[in-house]
């Protein structure tokens, strides 16, 4: 295996991903051949890149000399034969197994036997693409993220026959290109597209059971630190693309219910409501998601002793907020650290941190009508306020229905009502992201460190799933998952064996 430093690179596919890969390689000093089956597409892509680089020069991001040098290294070619000397091929064509197999079989007769063949596939099995190649050991996945020049992550995906030296060469090259490589085993969705499924799926499930509006769900998850809510993110990706990836992962996992596609999203796709690119998805564009209407709440009433229940960071913070707001009058609230639940008892009414059960279930079990559950705030102690979902038990009094959001508002939150769904939105989403990540580790797809890096760099998550787990707890996460499993009675919320072992 020869060094890839400054070696000629062939990029096949002159779409957004292909031209981005070509730009990164050229900026790193490689001569780059750019090819596309559509006549003239490679030249057109270089012209568009010229305008992009000119814009960066105008903004002072790069020098005119650097832009000119980058463009000089990129050569649109009319046929693959013109790139016979390439030491690395990176394919970025349509996500179709047959098309990719056909291309790489053709490439084996064009480039030398020492050349590395890489695919930018986001979800197709690397092992499957390599099937039929004369030298499958030199084939590897090199999955970039859009936009390629800005996004740091590269998933280095090894198939069953990929030589370890090939994966290591791509890892070293990714570092030289200013990227952060993370190794993955070739399984459906690799790391990011697999672990990220619950971010979309839990919101789509809540929409299907009419638990909340897209605006409310997006607001709650953005308050938890995500840059975009799942609905606006699906609108940005395109529902056709997102739905296709979900279907691919679902089918590749033999219909595993954890990855089942959504009827809500299928209807959007069937209706041509694809998001930003069609002008309408969950929201209408260019306006996008409307702001949540401001709500006015009555003052919180203290009808009896205020007691803070539970131990840990959230219970401690609740106690501080009650004291700071003088919500228990002149007396400090009492504290029950040994309680099995976290939250406030306010004169017999309960404001409970969700453990996955619905408010109605808790009320029925405890024999207390006035129960409300609130979602898990992820950004404490850095951000004590923000949008927070809550739900009130169906059997609660009219007074408590008004007082539950009044208390949350007095504690510094912007309370957002949801139907009484198990796990609300943030808690169930984070629990499922953690569960999926631990299952990926259990199956040898990646390491915990790789999962954290991939999700933060590939999709800009505010933390990695194992970082969330360390801050929450195995017991807390599995409690939410078990409650979801009991409520919905299906395979979707089964707990990863990795988590079960940690809990034992």
Description:
The longest helix has 18 residues, at 41-58. This protein folds into 4 domains: 9-186, 3-Layer(aba) Sandwich (Rossmann fold); 193-278, N-(1-d-carboxylethyl)-l-norvaline Dehydrogenase, domain 2 (Orthogonal Bundle), CATH 1.10.1040.50; 306-417, 2-Layer Sandwich (Transcription Regulator spoIIAA), CATH 3.30.750.190; 427-503, N-(1-d-carboxylethyl)-l-norvaline Dehydrogenase, domain 2, CATH 1.10.1040.50. The protein contains 20 helices and 15 strands. The chain starts with 8 loop residues before the first strand and ends with a helix. Helix 16 (426-442) packs across helix 19 (474-488). The strands form 2 sheets. The chain has an 8-stranded mixed β-sheet, with helices on both faces. The chain is of the alpha/beta class and 504 residues long. Helix 13 links the parallel strand 9 (306-309) and strand 10 (334-336).
Provide a count of the helices: 20
Give the termini distance in whole angstroms.
46 Å
CATH architecture label of the largest domain:
3-Layer(aba) Sandwich
Mean pLDDT score: 95
Strand order of the largest sheet: 3-2-1-4-5-6-7-8
Gyration radius (Cα, Å) is 26 Å
Total strands: the figure is 15
State the CATH topology of the largest domain: Rossmann fold
Main beta-sheet annotation = 8 strands, mixed
Helical content band: 40-55%
- How many structural domains are formed by the residues? 4
CATH homologous superfamily designation of the largest domain: NAD(P)-binding Rossmann-like Domain
Q: In terms of quaternary structure, what is this?
A: single chain
The first-level CATH class of the largest domain is given as Alpha Beta
State the shape: elongated
Which structural class should the secondary elements be placed in?
A: alpha/beta
**Spans of at least 5 consecutive residues with low confidence:** none
Question: DSSP strand (E) fraction?
Answer: 5-15%
């Amino acid at each position: 295996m020869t060094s890839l430093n400054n070696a000629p690179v062939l990029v096949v596919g002159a779409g957004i991903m292909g031209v981005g890969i070509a730009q990164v390689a050229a900026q790193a000093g490689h001569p780059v051949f750019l090819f596309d089956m559509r006549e003239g597409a490679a030249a057109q892509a270089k012209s568009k890149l010229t305008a992009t680089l000119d814009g960066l020069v105008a903004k002072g991001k790069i020098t005119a000399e650097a832009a000119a040098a980058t463009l000089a290294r990129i050569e649109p070619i009319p046929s693959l034969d013109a790139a016979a000397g390439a030491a690395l091929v990176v394919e970025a064509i349509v996500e179709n197994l047959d098309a990719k197999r056909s291309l790489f079989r053709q490439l084996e007769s064009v480039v030398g036997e020492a050349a590395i063949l890489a695919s930018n596939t986001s979800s197709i099995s690397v092992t499957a693409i390599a099937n039929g190649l004369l030298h499958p050991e030199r084939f590897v996945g090199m999955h970039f993220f859009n936009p390629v020049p800005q996004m740091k992550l590269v998933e280095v995906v090894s198939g069953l026959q990929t030589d370890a030296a090939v994966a290591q060469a791509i890892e070293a090259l990714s570092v030289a290109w200013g990227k952060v490589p993370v190794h993955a085993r070739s399984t459906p969705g690799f790391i990011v597209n697999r672990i990220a499924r619950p971010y979309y799926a839990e919101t789509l499930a809540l929409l299907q059971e009419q638990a909340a509006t897209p605006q409310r769900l997006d607001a709650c998850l953005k308050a938890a630190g995500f840059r975009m809510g799942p609905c606006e993110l699906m609108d940005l990706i395109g529902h056709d693309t997102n739905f296709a990836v979900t279907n691919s992962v679902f089918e590749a996992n033999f219909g595993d219910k954890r990855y089942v596609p959504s009827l809500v999203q299928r209807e959007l796709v069937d209706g041509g409501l694809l998001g930003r690119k069609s002008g309408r998805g969950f929201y209408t564009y260019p306006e996008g998601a409307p702001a949540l209407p401001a709500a006015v709440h009555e003052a919180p009433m203290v009808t009896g002793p205020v007691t803070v229940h539970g131990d840990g960071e959230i219970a401690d913070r609740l106690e501080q907020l009650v004291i700071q707001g003088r919500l228990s009058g002149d007396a400090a609230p009492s504290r029950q650290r040994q309680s099995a639940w976290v939250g406030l008892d306010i004169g017999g009414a309960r404001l409970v941190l969700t453990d996955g059960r619905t408010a109605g279930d808790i009320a029925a079990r405890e024999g207390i009508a006035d129960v409300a559950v609130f979602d898990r705030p992820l950004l404490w102690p850095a951000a004590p306020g923000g949008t927070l979902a809550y739900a009130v038990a169906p059997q609660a009094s009219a007074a408590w229905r008004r007082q539950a959001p009044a208390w949350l508002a007095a504690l510094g939150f912007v309370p957002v009502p949801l139907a009484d769904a198990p796990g609300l939105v943030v808690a169930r989403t984070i629990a499922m992201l953690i569960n999926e990540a631990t299952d990926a580790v259990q199956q040898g797809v990646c390491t915990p460190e790789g999962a954290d890096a991939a999700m933060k760099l590939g999709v800009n998550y505010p933390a990695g799933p194992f970082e969330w787990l360390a801050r929450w707890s195995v017991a807390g996460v599995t409690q939410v998952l078990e409650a979801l499993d009991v409520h919905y009675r299906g395979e979707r919320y089964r707990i990863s064996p990795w988590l079960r072992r940690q809990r034992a």
